[in-house]
Amino acid sequence: MMCVKAAVPRAGSLRRVLSTGLPTMWGAVAITYKLTRPLAQQNALGARVVTTAVFFMVGTGLIVHARRALLRELRQARQVASAAQRVLLRSLPPRIDGLTVAAAQMSADRGATIGGDLYEAVATEHGVRVVMGDVRGHGLAAIGTAAAVLGSFREAVHDEPELGGVLRRLDRALARHLRERAERDGTATEDFVTVLLLEIGADGMLRSLNCGHPWPYRLSGSGVEPLSCADPLPPLGPFPLPGDLSGLQCGPLLPGETLVLHTDGAEDARDAAGRFFPLPEVLQEAVEVPPRAVVGRVFTALLDHTGGTPKDDVALLAVRNDRQHPHPSRSGPRPGHRTVRGGAGGPAVLLRGISVNRLETLRNSARTLRIRALRSHPV
Description:
Mean pLDDT: 77
Distance between the termini: 98 Å
Shape: elongated
Low-confidence stretches: 1-11, 331-379
Radius of gyration: 33 Å
Helix content: 40-55%
Largest sheet: 6 strands, antiparallel
Strand order of the largest sheet: 1-2-11-10-7-8
């Protein structure tokens, strides 16, 4: 049995027909008027004015048609680019595992909503893991490298129990991307990426690995302070990773405290007089506001400082601890630890992950075992 499908003209085909047919029609009208109308062949002033008006209308029609076609193509291209950019640097949910999150990015290239800066926050069984990175260069040229790093991070955070394993996966993905690009383009590349990995455990404890990236700021009731002053590792790309990637313990993120991760485009931005952007001072005025307002205030102040034309990509990510269960102080033991002192001056025993009820259950079980042993083997 033979099936025949009727050809249905598509909207794209109709637009192509109109885009070629309308200019042809306008041109045919102008030529027909010039060749067939006696008025168009006269040299009198009135005839010339009429002829000029006819050709002016024809030219205006062509220009308007061309402009509408270009605007339609530009609108379609922007829709495609926006969809691709949303997939690469997707919007973060407002809350992740009890943490309030807000993030935004500003590209130095006009018309691009993303560039060489990257960020992501993912809830895993190992805790909430966050990445903030900065690719060498800015704008559209750095998007491919940022995509390679982000794609590897989104997979590795669920598979690797330690931050060191995540960092090694990112390093291998970057090396593979640069090697493939060099083979495709026929030129060696010397790109690198600064990366900050952060893990926020269920107990609020912070663990980090920093490869050449600026340290985030902690916003608390006591003010604004860097999360750490330790020397970071070299950026990913030019140098091999060290063997020890145990990470840095940065203490707990207490309830109500906020971390602000940023790229160097924020602190390196200058005004017309060459002064750097005072990021800590701006954050000092936003200690008590939610993360979304923190990001908004920083970007507003940054645009005012640079006159609306930043020279580098800028990314910000703010995360605040809004969990309800109690957390330890900075100097106390971690959650899940309970100190139980023995009687009659006995030694203090640090029990991890054992509640009072569980402790009583263990004591009762031990007492029962001793009674059974005495019954089985009387003295």
